[in-house]
Amino acid sequence: MADENTPVAVAPAPTPAAANAPAKPTVKVKIEAPAFREYPTIPALRADAMIDPDPYAATAAHNEAMGFPGTLVDGWEQKAVAKMGELLGKYRSLKVYMDACVHCGACTDKCHYFIGTGNPKNMPVARQDLMRSVYRRYYTLPGKLFPKLVGARDMTKDVLDDWFRYYNQCSECRRCSVFCPYGIDTAEVTMAAKEIMHSIGVGHKYVNEIIGKVHKIGNNLGLPGPALENTLEGLEEDVLEDTGAAVKYPLDVKGAEVLLVTPSADFFAEPHVDSLIGYGKVFHAAGISWTLSSKASEAGNFGMFIGNYEQMQKIAMRVREAALELGVKRIVVGECGHAWRVAYAFWNTLTGIGAGANDPFAIQLQKQLDPNYKQPSHICEVTWDLIQAGRLKFNKEANDHRIVTFHDSCNVARGSRMGDYAGGQFEIPRNIIKAVANHYVEMSPDTTHERTFCCGGGGGLLTDELLDLRVKGALPRMEALNRIVQHDGVNFMATICAICKAQFTKVLPYYGFKMSMVGGVHQLVSTAIVLDNEQ
Amino acid sequence: MSLLFAILFYAATLILAGGVAYRIYDYARTPAPLKIPTTPAPTTTGGVAFRMFREVVFFESLFKSNLWIWALGWLFHVGLALVLLRHLRYFTEPVNFIIAFIQPFGMYAGFAMAAGLAGLWARRFLVERIRYISTPSDHLMLALLLGIAVTGLLMKFVMHTDIVAVKTFFLGLMVFEINPLPAHPGLYLHLGMVVLLMIIFPVSKLLHAPGVFFSPTRNQVDNPRETRHLAPWAAKFEAKN
């Protein structure tokens, strides 16, 4: 027996990592997943719960390449307040949301980052109040006269530091907006805050590097055209070897019917690439000519994450240009959550890809695109239409080793639609899965459909320095998954988002799951589809 | 005192009507450049009207979110609505039969309103998360509303005022005549707090009332692929491309 006076190694209590450690990149933080809770309860507040390190700031070169000041400008306090005023005049969402909140508390337990960290500033209302307090100080009478009374604050360095830290702990997933009685969407506030910060020279390294790559090379991963071509040739060989079918993965083919725009992770990351293989098989089996574009070799649009209309439009415009150059009749988007939100909800506005316009800019494109199809279409819409038309054949048993569940990706669930009716974005992917696999299990309804939890890596937070946050933010999804793993033996979580796939691949092991548990819907399609020239 | 209250009510009415009208104008003129309905969202205008109706009348989102806040909030708002309707009888002659019909309901609605407010206020002390987000003004707002409810109930059930004279006072105000207001401390308190509430309405979180109708996540039709949606300031970028 150990002497009572001997110091005994005690397992560390599950407190947040290194609350007081200096926020420097050199600090190695041991990242641990929070324990599963038997009954998911609302966590007590942990005001000192910090994510370490803070997000890394973007370099001057990256900020300047996007047309923003490189570093924090002189007189930034006034400039930030002035920029806020400008945005209040340009975005009704921001203006109404700054005024309407009554602090009822309905949103306080809805954010996955709050659930995972217990940090009160991750409660949606508290995150909004970081900006609302400044709004009140400068743009409302009570805040000018009685700042303390209404919780108004001056724009100070402390406030700016809080903005940078906590607006980079919001994945813009919109879960809070589902539950707010006024529909206040914290994502809108986060985007405005990032827009304001950029205008005074404060950016997030990860996001701004990626936007730099998309402009310079054409995709988020910086994959140049020749490398792309190589990869696609390799895929064709692999698929031929596996199936005996000469499925093509064409690049820059003029006159193809379909332009497929997909997240660049699909070109080489696991498990993403398996879905790309699946898209190709679907087009092959249905006899639809299609092409990828080296110019628009990225569906993702990180311009949305920083709330910058011009950047978002500039990035989206590559797709318009590629479509015009290649002369395609249809534009289809691959499995990517925020990309589908931008494509579905914003492309028509930004680039005229859509219908119903009477301005010359949009009409030019609409003359070319086939009005018999929704423009743009989601790859799941394409596949589901083909399944319903009886144009695809499946050997469902090929997926019998899998017990499948579906994770609704936040931007698809709450920021877009598929098909002709509200909620098609939930039904269509599930319909496809059930058409290609025999074993399907739903997760708890509190965590699916419009109530789905973000994977924990969305909104431009999919970066290594934020891994602690990402692991903690995945907690509610991991708990829901764990329940059906225990109860139903689920071994595959399908999703239609490149960020979800990358995030889960990384964080699943922290919760004791295999990283190969996550994959795409078209990965399942790819496994089961029967190709005519199969030997 | 009658003159003071007459002036206060004229001023408060101007501030309330002018302030809220300006806010509505301001919300209406500010563009919503992107389609951002929280989906699944209705695909038709009629569907949006129905969604807004459910939101405003039943607090649908709040119901999904938190049953305690929903129950207390709904109790308070429905109570307040009935009480306000009931009070119309002090401003009209003859009294509309619907207003006459709801008088007894309006009386008990006063209790519902007070109970809802007390519950909402208790949450600001008892629930850690809500304590964290509460500002002094959040407490004062509830105190003000509860004060109005309690003084009103006291006058109805405990220390009556000369309600006929009160009605004469208000009917007079509407034709710019100042009639004597009964000298009653409860009445002064009640009316004073009502005036204060009217004045702060257009510069406070009470703007959630007009605001909800302008919330893009709730009032937009989900049809971005079918209809092009372009804000005037955003249309300018197209010339450059």
Characterization of this structure:
The complex is a heterodimer of chains A (535) and B (241). Chain A has 22 helices and seven strands. Chain A is mainly alpha-helical. In chain A, helix 2 (76-90) packs across helix 9. Chain A is globular. Chain B has 241 residues and is mainly α. Chain B has two domains: 1-29 and 139-207, no CATH class; 44-134, no CATH class. The longest helix of chain B is centred in the first third of the chain and has 28 residues, at 2-29. Chain B is globular. The mean pLDDT of chain B is 95. Classes of the chains: A mainly alpha (535), B mainly alpha (241). At the A-B interface, helix 2, helix 3, helix 5, helix 8 and helix 13 of A face helix 1, helix 3, helix 7, helix 8 and helix 12 of B.
Rg measurement of chain A, Å: 24 Å
The share of residues in helices of chain A is 40-55%
- Gross morphology of chain A is globular
Main sheet record of chain A: 4 strands, parallel
Total number of β-strand segments of chain A? 7
> Main beta sheet of chain B: strand number and arrangement?
none
Measure the end-to-end span of chain B. 67 Å
What percent of residues of chain B adopt helix (DSSP H or I)?
A: over 70%
- Radius of gyration of chain B using CA atoms only: 22 Å
Roughly what is the average pLDDT of chain B, rounded to an integer? 95
Query: What class would the helix/strand composition of chain B place it in?
Result: mainly alpha
Strand content of chain A: under 5%
Biggest contact: A-B, 80 and 68 residues
Termini of chain A, distance in Å? Answer: 69 Å
SSE series of chain A: HHHHHHHHHHHEHEHEHHEHEHHHHEHEH
Keyword list:
heterodimer; A: 535 residues; mainly alpha; Fumarate Reductase Iron-sulfur Protein, Chain B, domain 2; 2 domains; four-stranded parallel β-sheet; three-stranded parallel β-sheet; 22 helices; 7 strands; disordered N terminus; B: 241 residues; 0% strand
